[in-house]
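#data-curation
PF: Archiving a pair of folding outputs for the training set. Convention for this channel: one message per protein, sequence first, structure tokens after, nothing in between. First:
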Amino acid sequence: MRRPLGVFEDIIRDQDDFEFQLGDTLDIKTSIVLVVITFLATQSADFLKGTPILSPFWSRAQILSILCLIIAGMLALYELLPKKYMVRMPPDQFLKWVEDLSDFYKEEADPIAKIDSAINDVEIERIKARFAQNSSINALKSRLLVGSFYFSLTALVINLFTLLSVSLAS
């Protein structure tokens, strides 16, 4: 028989799974940003060493671009550092716990219902704790990714205008 909170339980279980998967998604996006950072850094280095027609203004702009890329790279690398996500109880530990519950409730009138209720209550609390910790980790990862993106975007704009300047000057 489904308990009145059954729908709520399904929703928070789905949200728990989503939060765990979101961490991987953020890491993939950050890895893509790192590829862009590498390309832009190479481009900036080429502008500074190989373009004699680069004006002093655009040379300083490229130094600013490199600084933005350094900050973006540091944010991206910090985002990619392994984080301690909370995960579900391993199956063998869970089965041992259920076995202990069975022993504890074996003298009760309806032991199956008691065990089911205990499992649901504890699991809901664990899911809420996992969700709180994992969503906090993902919020930090998201802020780092956004920061890295905007510093990379600034460098991209500088590099595009530098490229335009070099193209028009030649």
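PF: Second:
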Amino acid sequence: MFNKSILYKLAFTFVLTLTLIACGGGDDGDVVVIPEKTSLPGTWHFCNEFEATSSQFTYIFTGTRFTKLKSDYLNNSCSGPAANGFDELHTGTYTIGTQTNSGSEIGAFLLNMEIETAFGVPVDPYMFYQIYGIAGNVLYLGDNTGSQDGFSAINRPNSLLLSEDYIREASPGSPQPGDYTGSLAANYSASNFIITLSGCMDPLNNGDVTLDTASFSMVSGDDTSYQAIAIYTLNAGPNVLTLTHSITGSISAGNLIGSFTSVFAVNGSTQNTGDGTFSGTLSGDSLNISFIDQDRTGDTCQTVSSIDFIASAN
């Protein structure tokens, strides 16, 4: 019932290229970018606008880790509720290198990214070599659409794509994604736990399934409300199956409640979508989550589980 294993490098290239290809070049010879090396941590959004729809790409840099999200919208302004919650997720670690010349743009920095998950699934870690520059509240990344694709140090992008502007999310006084301020840890993990399925179209899919790993990561919020992403994974022979929950919830005295949208994928391909509710209890470094997930498209399964998470170092 679960799955996922695809050409992860190709997928990562595809997602990055989507964010770099929309706006074209232009004459940026007179633009001088003065990056601020220490201000990369934070949340950055770029809206890729089409005629009637749009996609928002988000980078979240915190500490030594990064997260990349994509949200699709049924308008051309990346506004209102996202049609798919969070999608096309990449996570990993990053380091900032020395200042580098990026052609006519001055003062970019080397950005070394080690990819650990692609589309919610753990992968054999691999490196992606980027550059970045910051001007005010705008982040520019290197242009990896040509031969300088970033999958080796020698092929690191050598110019900033100034037509792609990632705007820093900033609202003084309110919590921002990537800057979770509450008492929960930023990341929790679990392993070897059971989910129970019932009501599936194929009765053979009903019953208990033991999954390999799970992660529960805070995206934004404080000690009253928050957004989070939970990813449940099963490695089944050549296939990897993932169930991803995009969560909105509230906290009161260590008790969590909330709702989510869900995507079940097999080898990176969406099979079912749904929604559900969950509740949880926080005790020290332990977080117990119980959820009910109902398929709305692709199948009719109801999935329930109670999972004990432990706070992760990252």
